[in-house]
Amino acid sequence: MSKNTEFVKFDKVDKSYDGKVLVVKDLNLNISEGEFITMLGPSGSGKTTCLMMLAGFETPTNGEIYLDSNPISNIPPHKRGIGMVFQNYALFPHMTVYENLAFPLRVRKVQKDEIDKKVDKALSMVSLSGFESRMPAQLSGGQQQRVAVARALVFDPAVVLMDEPLGALDKNLRESMQYEIKHIHENIGVTVVYVTHDQGEALTMSNRIAVFNDGKVQQLSSPDKLYEEPVNSFVAEFIGENNTFGGEVTDISKDVCKVKLQNGEILANPVSVTSKGDKTTVSIRPERALINPKDKMDNNQTGKIEEVIYHGDHTRVRLDLLGNKEFILKVPNSSNELDLKLGNEIKVGWNSQDARALDPK
Amino acid sequence: MSSETKQILTTDGIPLEISLKKAERKNKIKAFLLVAPLLLFLIITYIFPIGEMFTRSIDDKMITNMLPKTFKSMETWDGKELPSEEVFASFLSDFKILVEKKEHGKLAQRLNKEKNGFNTITKKLFRQVKRNKIDETQSIKEQIMKVHKRWRNVEYWQAIKRTAPPYTSAKYLKAMDMYLNEDNKITQVSEDRRIHRILWLRTVEVAFFVTVFCFLMGYPIAHLLATLPMKYSNLLMICVLLPFWTSLLVRTASWMILLQQQGVVNDFFVMIGLVADDNRPEMMYNKVGTYVAMTQILLPFMVLPLYSVMKTISPSLMRAGKSLGGTPFVAFWKVYFPLTIPGIGAGCLLVFILAIGYYITPALVGGASGTLISNQIAYHMKTTLDWSFASAMGLMLLGGVLVIYWLYNKLVGVDNIKLG
Q1: Structural domains in chain A plus CATH codes
Q2: Given CB atoms, is B249 within the 8 Å cutoff of chain A?
């Protein structure tokens, strides 16, 4: 069965609130059926606006949004059949859990016994069976969240939107809810558009992630690709930790380039540089730089330990390396033979493949 | 739990409960001292005057004190035939004391209220007493009966007996157009004299409709206030509150300017050809004027509680309602409206209670068909000086408000009121 890869389609969508600033600029985004896609970005990057346009609470200033090949700009929210989970759950405080879940079915004039069945199913899906007669205020935050998810799913919408739904939960609960939502998605195969500013959340849950910044999608790819192969320095910076060097390309071939730094020279992977003389920011993930590497590596440098922070499963080491005093290394807890003392000089090596020469900051 | 539960002690060995009480006593005293001025103020300005009003409204001691011996001797009288010589004698001796104190006029007035005709016969008796015409060695009964034929009528003596108790419900009955007749039965006054009941009904009617109008107009305003961006909502809020900053008299007067027959509104109607120039509708000195002016004046009391409740309703609830498939109307009716009920309750209760006792506006723009019970109270306070009657009506008004409050509590629940 081939899935519709353009189930939701943003086509050249612009959005401006005041006629002066574009909050969303020329957004083109295809979401396939059954996909879990996350819009990730700092606050003010336009991701929530995109969601609101899809839900129908905002209209695009320009462009069109298609749902299953139908333009939806002129369809009011209540006719779009899109489920939505809100940031603060938005459970109706004067209705019981049952009435909350029955609301979307009642407005659709579903038969009473059918409603009972569906509500039952939705509640058992979020493991809240038996809570039908509770009021939302009598539930804990996590339970309210689950009710909100169940309510958004109970009427079998084609798409479910989630607007930072876990933002108000504490860390442990948030993590377990992440898995729960992911499993629900896997079980029922609904298309989910998820908005968050928490990269950890985005990485664990999504099929694909769209990183937003400044009203634009900076990169749209799977979590692993996003982390391993960021296409620009914003994504590299925003997702995970990242060591950077600013420099200039002095030599370039197909898959390696030489970058001259302030004091030194390194080999890097030319991602967004094309010719000699280009300014660039080289990005290296902390876990890709090894201390005293056993294998031969393209780049070998010596750095001075500036700070050591114990993190339990790993130790973070801050080095002064090639003039960058913020060079971070992650040392796994198993390698205890290392002598990590302040002021010690240690050897650090990494492959040119992992040093990605991106656009200058 | 059994009573054998071990008492918990603090580390110093004092029982925990005692220790806690001690620690909290200071706070309690502090809290009490903080509210003490208000409590005192309330007692002096509220509870005490209401008590005073109540005693005044049922007080009938004046006459009891005027005719102590008469009432004493009347105790054994069955009230069917003319009283005995003894009653006449004690009445005369009471009357003589009153004449000496020059209080016989008050007696005549009070008795005349009980039964018409007392004025004349008391005056006649006074003249006889003044001239010392009554010989106390003879039968006093015979002599008094000769003063005027009405003194021979048993009904007048019955009337005197009816005034004996120091307390009376007459004022309350009067406020409902009823009185106690000769047989101590509650009777309605004749139809052409029933004015109070009309006023009560009109008061409730006006208060009800003013509340309804305030609600119909205030709800959208409050909604707008709660949803508009700050800079617009502040401006609108000022517009809502503006009437508060103007004197009530000025506001009412401006309504008079607008609503009178040669006023702005009528001019406008004539100009657009809605009414003929010689057929301008009367919009003042009747109920219309009262409705219009009172609605405008009481509107903020509806808007503010509604606003404070609507402010707390997250806009995402309406969105949720719509995204779940409810039309805007369904989302409003099923989600938004039920959540504003506490505000509606508070606003309506506030407006109704204020409207039911409203005084200045109906007095100025109400005319004859637009005056309310409060105007009647004021009339008796200032013009007839029948304070006990005014007190009785005031208390009935207060009682009515309490009944409404009780009903509201039964229907909606006072916990559901939210003023902000």
Answers
A1: 8-233 (3.40.50.300), 241-358 (2.40.50.100)
A2: no
